C-alpha cells in the first residue's frame, strides 16, 4: 500500500528532491497496535534502523533486536537502555557468531545474546560467566517469500540445529550462563501454513530443556509475518497467529510450573506498509518490443526486486501532483545503475517483466509502495551513489529524519 496522497508526495518531492524515502508514522502505530496481545514485541531493526523510527517504536512500548555492533549503538542512540524494562531486557543481540568487538560491547553493557551457534556460548562464558542468553534453534524446517529468506532446515546457516539442543544446554550449564529463553525464526515472508507445526516444535524443544533439569522464562516466535505486497495477497490474521502461540505458551507454562513470557520479533510487519520510495522519471525509451521508463532510484536504493524478484506496487504521479490518468502501457521500470539487473519489474531469477502502468513522462514521479522494510536499510553506495534522504510524516508534519549523504563524505573515507 501507499499511505500518502499524490499531492503530499508531490509536495515532499518538490521540497526535498528525489529519490527519497517517506514513512507514515500512523501506519507504524496501527501495525504495532495489531500485535498488542503479545507480552513483548521486539522490533527486528534490520528492517528499518533509522534512529527516529526506533524512537517512535520505543515510545509505543516496542523493545528492540540488534544484529550487529552498529545496530546495538543505534538502539542506544534512540534511547533504549541496556538493562531491564518491566522485567524484560530492552535490547537483545541476535547472531550466529560474535566478532571480538561486539562480544566486548555486549558483555560491557550486559545485553543478552540470542545465540545461533554453540561456539558463542563458550566465548560468552569465557568473557563473562553468568551472561544472559537465549538459544536460537533451527527446528529443521522453514519457509520464506524467497529461498534467500527461508531460515530453517539443513541449507540454512542460522540457529542451533534442533538435535544439538542438549549439547548447547550442556554448554550453557558448563559456562555458568543464564538461560532466558528459546527462540525460533523460521524465515521472512512466511505463509504460516504450518503454524501448528512451528508451535509444536517449540513445545518439544522446551521439553528437552526441562528433561535436562533446566528452566527458562520466555519463548520467542521470531519474526516473519508477511504483508500483502500485491492485490489479492491476504493480510495476516494476527488474532489467530497469537492464539496458536498463546496456547503453546500456556502448555509450556503449565509444564514448567510458572508463567512464561511470549515474545514476537517482527520487522517487515511493523514498517513495510508505512514507507514508499519516491523517484522521478528521467528518461523513457523503446528497446525492441519493450518500453522502458528510467527513474533516478536504483537497486542501490531499493534492492528487493533485484535480490529476490520481489514485487512492489508502483503508482505514477504527474508533474502537476495528481495521480496519473494517462492510458495504461506495458512498462519495464529501471534505474540508473550500470547493471542490466537494475530493474524494478522483475521476477525471481532476474527475468525482466512488464507492468501495466499509466504511460509515464519525464518529470512524473514513480512511487514504489511497501518499501518501509528492507528498503533504506539494505541500500548501498554502489556506483558511488550517496544514500538518499528519509522523511517521516507525523500529524501532517514532514520531518527529515536522515539527510542525503554527499559524495564528499564518501570520498573523505579515502582521504588518508
Ligand atoms: N528475527 C530474526 C532472527 C531475523 O533474522 C529476521 C529477519 C527477523 C526477526 C524479522 O523478519 P521479518 O519479520 O521482517 O520477516 N531482506 C529480506 C528479509 C530478510 C530478513 C532477515 N531476517 C527482504 O527484504 O524480504
What report would you give on this structure?
The protein has 416 residues and is of the alpha/beta class. The protein folds into two domains: 36-265, TIM Barrel (Alpha-Beta Barrel); 272-412, Lyase, Ornithine Decarboxylase, Chain A, domain 1, CATH 2.40.37.10. Helices cover 29% and strands 24% of the residues. The strands form three sheets. Strands 1, 13, 14, 15, 16, 17, 18, 19 and 20 form a nine-stranded mixed beta sheet that branches. Helix 6 (118-127) runs parallel beside helix 7 (165-174) and helix 8 packs parallel to helix 9. The radius of gyration is 23 Å and the shape is elongated. It starts with 5 loop residues before the first helix and ends with a helix. The mean pLDDT is 97. Ligand LLP binds at residues 44, 46-47, 94, 149, 185, 188-189, 222-225, 265-269, 304, 373-374. Residues 30-272 form the Orn/DAP/Arg decarboxylase 2 N-terminal domain. Substrate binds at residues 268, 304, 308, 339, 374. Specifically catalyzes the decarboxylation of meso-diaminopimelate (meso-DAP) to L-lysine.
